[in-house]
């Protein structure tokens, strides 16, 4: 079978679609997608996290995939980072890199078996996007975050508009503080021409009380 590609990923509809696509993509994701598409989001998200987290941990990487966020966090050896993903094949790739403390196979569109208030930082790149995860998952992430935890979540900007993220952030206004959005390119200049204008909102906020 040919490697899946970005357009196939954006066209997914269900968690089972995601499991099936990423099972086939895991082996070649870093080379056939991230390198070829000049995919910059994980590095951007990792750098923003390092800038705002001020040592708070442990960190949960949501939709960790092959580990590109953790790979790009400066001084990551000083941090405890857990990987959460629906795809065991993607988690297996990240495990080969030895970047994470724990590997959690879970579907974020459903309740997840993680205790309340255990993470000091929650980070995500490329998972709040077309055909993947919607705004409802933010409730779960708030539940498992400690008071004061920092969040750095990339949200594909078209997905943000189409799936009610603005309303979601308004609805959780009393639970979060210091909300800030940075809007950045997902792909660099050598990425796919038809995706050159794809942007992500990087949502940075803290869980109250800060
Ligand atoms: C585009 S990849 C991003 C991976 C990595 N963060 C990166 O930036 O390279 C999206 C990831 O989200 C995961 N994913 C998709 N749906 C999910 C769900 N419902 N729950 C948890 N993870 C999910 C996929 O398995 C995949 O690893």
TrEMBL record:
Residues 60-152 form the Methyltransferase type domain. InterPro entries: Methyltransf_11, SAM-dependent_MTases_sf. Pfam families: Methyltransf_11 (PF08241). One of its GO terms (molecular function) is S-adenosylmethionine-dependent methyltransferase activity. One of its GO terms (biological process) is methylation. Keywords: Methyltransferase, Transferase. This is Putative TPR repeat methyltransferase. It comes from Sulfitobacter noctilucicola.
